[in-house]
Design brief:
- This protein has 962 residues and is mainly beta.
- It has six domains: 94 residues, Immunoglobulin-like (Sandwich), CATH 2.60.40; 105 residues, Immunoglobulin-like, CATH 2.60.40.1220; 105 residues, Immunoglobulin-like (Sandwich); 104 residues, Immunoglobulin-like, CATH 2.60.40; 104 residues, Immunoglobulin-like (Sandwich), CATH 2.60.40; 342 residues, Peptidase S8/S53 domain (Rossmann fold, 3-Layer(aba) Sandwich).
- The protein has eight helices and 64 strands.
- Strands 51-52-50-54-56-57-58 form a seven-stranded parallel sheet, with helices on both faces. A five-stranded mixed sheet has the order 9-18-16-12-13, with no helix packed on it. It has a five-stranded mixed sheet with strand order 20-29-27-23-24, with no helix packed on it.
- Strand 6 and strand 7 form a beta hairpin.
- Helix 4 packs parallel to helix 7 and helix 5 packs parallel to helix 6.
- The protein is flat, with a radius of gyration of 56 Å.
- The termini are far apart.
């Protein structure tokens, strides 16, 4: 039986013209599938949208046929087979259904039209045909009826007409300015088109073809016109200085602002004085001058020379010198003018003379100064000094243009004569007109009446008004410098000053040549003699001056002396095996180091010593009053670390400015990473924070801030370098302490505080580190220990051999504390005592504590060392490290079992120290020293009741916050 036909569609190709509805000729039907077709053809028809079927043939083996013309949607258009059958040209498929002979079903096949014989046409132009106001940089685009490609020949752009001048020509086969893409042809001219011009684009036949080679017919009528463009010349919107203005500054630049952006043309711009045709002040070639600057709408003229005062100027620009960007020329100007400021026409006058006009008694070495009413400079001519009258003998003549003895500075002229003037002589200073001028060139009128008279000759010899030590005194310290104060300023003459022992003709201890000795210092009316060697104890000395060794500034000689004498102290050292050199005395220490008298200061703090007794005991306030506060000195605290966030310490904590915090890099290459605030040798990191409290207490004694509350340190402007070598339990290793000492030295510490020690132990590493510090000029202060021993523990015992200072402790009555280890020898070494019982200071966590021990005494000495080093600029000698340690200890006040014996400084210790506090603060004598490890040198904490606070603490309180 027959079944419905099955449609089989052939694949589409790019040559599918039927879908475009174009007239087709000689199409060929291909055989597909089981059915066999020979050919199918069309004949042209007058109707472009129809074709007539004129022939059809098939294989003879197929006896039956049926023809359908089917549209794209499958609907049959017609049936049957006969000449003249019409097909709609929009049909995509032609279906032929031919049942095989003797079969009851149909086979199907589909045919495609594959041939194209039609030429491409232009569907659109861009710019559109006949358009106007086309942009100059526009590309030309032609869109065709089908995909196209380059043929052969030229495409040309003509100006004016299709046969006009060729603006640009393109070979379609080779030009890179021609591009084909599908049905689009783009023409990209090399140059921009011209303004207001009609262009014709011509394409000859064959220049463009479709993909099967059908040629575009070409065109010579496609045209468009570009936009009219800028034809307006620029004009000046504003002048600076404004046209016709007056009082124009002489250094003014001239600026013209135009109506549009401009550029240099050709020609010259000129500045004329007086009129537009007056003298040319300056001329500028706009094409080459570096004094002409164009920027957007602005033209700036920068004259080489300043304009002249009170002058009318005309600025002329000829046509063509300035153009807009389109090349339109500025019309030019010859009328733009302005007038400069009238200027300074007032001559300078003298407002004062030094010496004053008509004055007398003038020193012969005086310089002469004239102060004028305005700033002045050298003019031309001479300034002269005459004796007796304005026309008297010329003492000295100065050419103002060349003399190195004249100095102009602002409103002042200073005349520095080569030679001193004569005594008791009247002098006239004459200045001719023009010798001095103001900055505008106005001349000073000059003077011939200015005069003064010098002092009468000095014929009085200088005399001594005081001796130090006082003439005939006794008990003079052996390290004392000798100072003579004269009746007038003096200077070195010639001859010798000698120190004799026993008598004026006794043995010469030392001789000083006044002309060459560095041990003599003249300053105003004082002469200081600084013997190389210390004087001997218990010896009478005579200091002799021959006449002529000292003279006044006029050359008058001191008569000399051979009778000035004094006697030294019987013993220079108050040494005993308990207290060493005795109680630290900051006052006497600084007097010895500087040679200056350090005046007594009022008691510091509450005045009764409840909190500040230690500061007053060592006389630290005397140093502060003299200006010595430890500023610039770095004190390394080798201890349990420091609470460097404490409000009393934070500002004085050392900061390693070469290290970047937290980056894990040793930025300063010192061997330690992130050591911003020192280093922790217990945990090996840069976090030297105090988890014990001992190191923070020590640091407050050294450099607590002087801020009116809490704690004030001995050297309150010193810098604390935290170096943690002891753990939270207060113990550590010798290796860690040694590394801490090396770190402190290598990172700039000037003083090291070591409030730590070990009983019955020693370390080669630590001894070597301390020697390293001493060899690098660092003052090392070490706690003697709290072991009730007759000699310091390690490392303080090294003060006897290697160097450094051992420190013992006294209480507020200046009695050596029972726990404090003694000096333990009859051979003096650097051992000194300091306050170490019930010492109030800072504590970890932002708090405060009262603690006792040589650990507390040592930072008093470290602070005193910082005060000493901060006075370096005033040292009377270039003291060595050993000498500084000796000064610090030997100037101490002797103490004994009953307290203070004597005072060696000019200051005095407070007699109002709080001895009464001892009845409130019961002392716990338990020692904390360990023979097996390095620990803090010991501190005793005891139940206390704190006086002077608003609220009393419980009896067992030892740490508190205020």
């Amino acid at each position: 039986m027959l079944t419905g036909p099955e449609r089989v569609r052939a694949p589409e190709t790019d040559n599918d013209a039927a879908g475009r509805g174009e007239n087709l000729m000689n199409a060929e039907m291909k055989e597909i599938g089981a059915s066999h077709f020979r050919s199918i053809g069309f004949s042209d028809n007058s109707d472009p949208f129809t074709n007539s079927l004129h022939s059809f043939s098939y294989y003879s083996s197929i006896p039956r046929e049926l023809i359908y013309g089917a549209s794209n949607n499958g609907a049959p258009a017609s049936s049957g087979f006969f000449p003249g059958f019409n097909f709609n040209p929009f049909f995509k498929d032609i279906q032929a259904i031919v049942p095989p002979m003797g079969e009851g079903e149909l086979s199907t096949s589909a045919a495609r039209i594959i041939s194209d014989v039609f030429a491409p046409t232009v569907r659109s132009f861009s710019p559109s045909d006949g358009s106007s106001n086309v942009a100059l940089a526009t590309n030309i685009v032609l869109t065709f009826s089908e995909p196209v490609k380059a043929g052969a020949g030229k495409i040309e752009i003509h100006s004016g007409s299709a046969t006009g001048a060729v603006f640009e020509s393109f070979n379609v086969a080779t030009s890179s300015r021609i591009s084909f893409s599908g049905s689009t042809l783009t023409i990209d001219p090399v140059k921009n088109l011209s303004n207001n011009t009609q262009y014709f684009v011509t394409l000859s036949k064959g220049t463009v073809v479709d993909l099967v080679g059908n040629s575009y017919a070409g065109t010579s009528t496609y045209d468009f016109r570009t936009f009219a463009g800028d034809i307006v010349a620029p004009t000046v919107r504003s002048f600076t200085p404004s046209d016709g203005s007056t009082n124009v500054a002489l250094a003014t630049n001239i600026i013209l602002t135009f109506s549009e952006s401009v550029k240099a043309g050709s020609g010259v711009i000129e500045i004329h004085s007086g009129s537009a045709t007056g003298a040319v002040f300056e001329s500028f070639n706009v094409a080459t001058s570096s004094r002409i600057a164009f920027s957007g709408t602005t033209l700036t003229i920068d004259p080489v020379n300043n304009l002249s005062n009170n002058t009318q100027y005309f600025v002329t620009l000829s046509k063509g010198t300035v153009l807009d960007i389109a090349g339109n020329s500025y019309a030019g100007t010859s009328t733009y003018d302005f007038k400069t400021i009238v200027g300074d026409i007032v001559a300078p006058t003298v407002t004062s003379f030094t010496p004053a006009d008509g004055s007398t008694g003038i020193a012969v070495g005086t310089n002469i100064s004239l102060t004028f009413s305005e700033s002045v400079k050298a003019g031309t001519g001479l300034i002269e000094i005459h004796s007796g009258s304005a026309t008297g003998s010329v003492v000295e003549s100065f050419n103002v243009a060349t003399s190195g003895r004249l100095a102009f500075s602002g409103t002042t002229l200073t005349i520095d004569p080569v030679n001193n003037l004569a005594n008791n002589t009247q002098y006239y200073v004459t200045l001719g007109t023009g010798a001095v001028a103001d900055l505008a060139g106005n001349s000073y009128a000059g003077t011939s009446t200015y005069d003064f008279k010098t002092v009468a000759a000095d014929t009085t010899a200088p005399t001594v008004t005081s001796f130090t030590p006082v003439d005939g005194t006794t008990g003079v310290a052996v390290g004392t410098n000798i100072t003579l104060t004269f009746s007038e300023a003096v200077k070195a003459g010639a001859g010798l000053i000698e120190i004799h022992s026993g008598s004026t003709t006794g043995s010469v201890l030392e001789s000083f040549n006044v002309a060459s000795s560095s041990r003599l210092a003249f300053s105003g009316s004082k002469l200081v003699i600084d013997p190389v060697n210390s004087l001997a104890n218990n010896t009478q000395y005579f200091v002799t001056f021959a006449q002529g060794t000292v003279v006044d500034l006029a050359g008058n000689s001191f008569a000399g002396t051979s009778t000035y004498d004094f006697k030294t102290i019987a013993s220079s050292v108050s040494w005993n095996t308990t207290s060493g050199y005795g109680l630290l005395n900051v006052d006497a220490m600084l007097e010895k180091a500087t040679g200056k008298v350090i005046s007594d200061a009022p008691l510091f703090g509450d005045g009764y010593g409840n909190w500040d007794w230690g500061l007053n005991d060592v006389q630290a306030p005397d140093a502060w009053q003299a200006g010595y506060t430890g500023k610039g000195v770095v004190v390394a605290v080798i201890d349990t670390g420091v609470d460097y966030t404490h409000s009393e310490l934070g500002r004085n904590i050392w900061i390693n400015k070469l290290e970047v915090a937290g980056n894990g890099i040793d930025d300063d290459k010192n061997g330690y990473v992130d050591d911003i605030y020192g280093y922790d040798f217990v945990n090996n990191d840069g976090y030297a924070f105090d988890d014990h409290g001992h190191g923070t207490h020590v640091s407050g004694i050294i450099a607590g801030l002087n801020n009116g509350y809490g704690v004030t340190g001995v050297a309150y402007d010193a810098t604390i370098m935290p170096v943690k070598v002891l753990s939270a339990s207060g113990s550590g290793s010798f290796a860690g302490v040694a590394a801490g000492v090396m770190y402190a030295v290598n990172n700039g510490a000037n003083v090291i505080n070591m409030s730590l020690g070990a009983f019955g132990a020693a370390s080669a590493d630590l001894s070597g580190a301390i020697a390293y510090a001493i060899n690098h000029g660092v003052i090392v202060c070490m706690a003697s220990g709290n072991d009730y021993q007759a000699s310091p523990t390690y490392p303080a015992v090294l003060a006897k051999t290697t160097g450094g200072i051992a420190v013992g402790a006294v209480d507020s009555t200046n009695i050596v504390a029972s726990f404090s280890n003694d000096a333990g020898t009859t051979v003096p070494f650097d051992f000194v005592d300091a306050p170490g019982v019930f010492v109030f200071s800072t504590y970890k966590g932002g708090g405060y504590a009262i603690m006792s021990g040589t650990s507390m005494a040592t930072p008093y000495v470290a602070g005193a060392a910082a005060l000493l080093l901060s006075a370096k600029a005033d040292f009377s000698s270039a003291w060595s490290l050993g000498q500084l340690e000796n000064i610090l200890t030997t100037t101490a006040q002797a103490v004994g079992a009953t307290g203070l014996i004597s005072s060696s400084g000019s200051g005095s210790t407070s007699q109002a120290l709080a001895a009464h506090a001892l009845s409130e603060w019961e002392y716990d004598s338990t020692t904390v020293a360990s023979p097996d490890s390095v620990t803090d040198a010991g501190h005793e904490m005891q139940p206390i009741v704190l006086t002077g606070l608003a609220t009393a603490f419980p009896m067992d309180a030892e740490v508190f916050i205020v």
